[in-house]
TrEMBL record:
Naturally occurring in which organism (per UniProt): Pelagivirga sediminicola
Entry keyword set: Cell membrane, Membrane, Transmembrane, Transmembrane helix, Transport
A Pfam short name: Cation_efflux
BP GO annotations: intracellular zinc ion homeostasis
TM stretches of this protein: 7-29, 41-59, 75-93, 113-131, 152-171
The protein, known as: Protein p34
SUPFAM superfamilies the UniProt entry points to: Cation efflux protein cytoplasmic domain-like, Cation efflux protein transmembrane domain-like
Gene Ontology cellular component terms for the protein in this record: plasma membrane
UniProt keyword Cytoplasm present: no
Main location group: membrane
Length: 296
C-alpha cells in the first residue's frame, strides 16, 4: 500500500479511538466543553475518510480525460475538511448557548478529564506523524489533517483547563464559555485550511524558496543556452509543474538543444522531486534579455 494511503487509513483508526474516548468523557461528565471536543473529533473522522478517498484518486495515473493527472483531488478534500470544521464549530456554538442559559455542575470531572487527556495525547502523537510525513510526501490532504489535529490538541488542552477552573471555582458557566472559545478557534482553523487549499486549486505559484531552487538549477545546468525566460510554476498535490522558454543559439542543432534540456530537467528534478517539466526551445532572436541568466 502507498505510504500516503497507509497514513490516511491510520487516521481513520486513530480518529475512531479518539472519538470513542472523548464521547465517553462527555458522557461521564455532561460537560458542554467536552461535548464540543467530541464534536470536533467527529469532523476528524469524517475528514480522515475524505482524505483517504482523495489520496486514492490522486494516486491514479494520467488518463485520456485527465492528461495532467488527478493530483488536485487532494485539494478538494482539504477544502471539504475546512468547511466541515466550520460546520462543527456552529454546532458547538449552539450547545454553548444552551449551556449559558442553564449552567450545571459536572459529574465525575476528574475521571472524565483523564479519559479525555488520553485521547488528546493520542491525537498529539498522530498529528506530529501526519504533519511530518505529509510534508515529506507533499500531500495537502495529510498535511491539512495533521494541522487540524494539532488545533484539536490545543483546544483539548484549553477545554481541560476550563473544566478544571470551573471545578475549582464552582462557576459552572465557565464550561459553556470554554466551549464557545473552542468554536471560535475552530472557525479560524477551518478558514485557514480552506484558504490554503483554494490557493492550490487556483494554481498558485510554488513558494519563493522552491522557485529559487528551480531558477538556480536552470542557471547552472543550461550551459550552452542563451537565456531562460517566462518561468511559470504551480503545484498540485505532490506534483510541481514547471514551464519556461529556453533560448539557444540559432545555429545550434536539435540534438544539442535536447541535450541541454535533458540536463536542465535532471537538475530541476534533483531540486524539486516529482517535478513535471515543460521546456519550449526558441532561437536566439527570441531573446527577451530578462529572466534567468545562464552560467557559462
Amino acid at each position: 500500500m502507498h505510504s500516503a494511503l497507509k497514513l490516511a487509513f491510520g487516521s481513520l483508526v486513530v480518529g475512531s479511538i479518539v472519538l470513542a474516548l472523548k464521547t465517553l468523557a462527555w458522557l461521564m461528565t455532561g460537560s458542554v466543553a467536552l461535548l464540543s471536543d467530541a464534536l470536533e473529533s467527529t469532523v476528524n473522522l469524517a475528514t480522515a475518510f475524505a482524505a483517504l478517498v482523495a489520496i486514492r484518486i490522486a494516486a491514479r495515473p494520467p488518463d485520456a480525460n485527465h492528461p495532467f493527472g488527478h493530483h488536485k483531488a487532494e485539494f478538494f478534500s482539504a477544502v471539504l475538511e475546512g468547511v466541515m470544521i466550520i460546520v462543527a464549530a456552529i454546532f458547538i456554538l449552539r450547545e454553548a448557548y444552551e449551556g449559558f442559559l442553564s449552567p450545571r455542575a459536572l459529574g465525575a470531572p476528574i475521571e472524565g478529564l483523564l479519559v479525555n487527556g488520553t485521547a488528546t495525547m493520542l491525537n498529539a502523537m498522530w498529528a506530529f506523524v501526519l504533519v511530518r510525513r505529509g510534508r515529506l510526501l507533499k500531500s495537502p490532504a495529510l498535511a491539512a489533517d495533521g494541522r487540524h489535529l494539532w488545533t484539536d490538541v490545543f483546544t483539548s488542552a484549553g477545554v481541560a483547563m476550563g473544566v478544571l477552573l470551573a471545578l475549582a471555582t464552582g462557576w459552572w458557566v465557565l464550561d459553556p464559555l470554554m466551549a464557545a472559545l473552542v468554536a471560535i478557534n475552530i472557525i479560524w482553523s477551518g478558514s485557514r485550511v480552506v484558504k490554503e487549499s483554494l490557493s492550490g486549486l487556483m494554481d498558485e505559484a510554488v513558494p519563493e524558496e522552491i522557485l529559487a531552487s528551480i531558477r538556480e538549477a536552470i542557471s547552472i545546468e543550461a550551459a550552452g543556452a542563451v537565456e531562460a525566460h517566462d518561468l511559470r510554476t504551480r503545484h498540485a498535490g505532490s506534483a510541481t509543474f514547471v514551464e519556461f522558454h529556453l533560448v539557444v543559439p540559432s545555429d545550434m542543432t536539435v540534438f544539442d538543444a535536447h541535450e541541454i534540456c535533458d540536463r536542465v530537467e535532471v537538475g530541476i528534478a534533483k531540486a524539486v522531486p516529482d517535478a513535471r517539466i515543460t521546456i519550449h526551445v526558441e532561437p536566439e532572436h527570441k531573446s527577451k534579455h530578462t529572466g534567468i541568466v545562464v552560467l557559462e
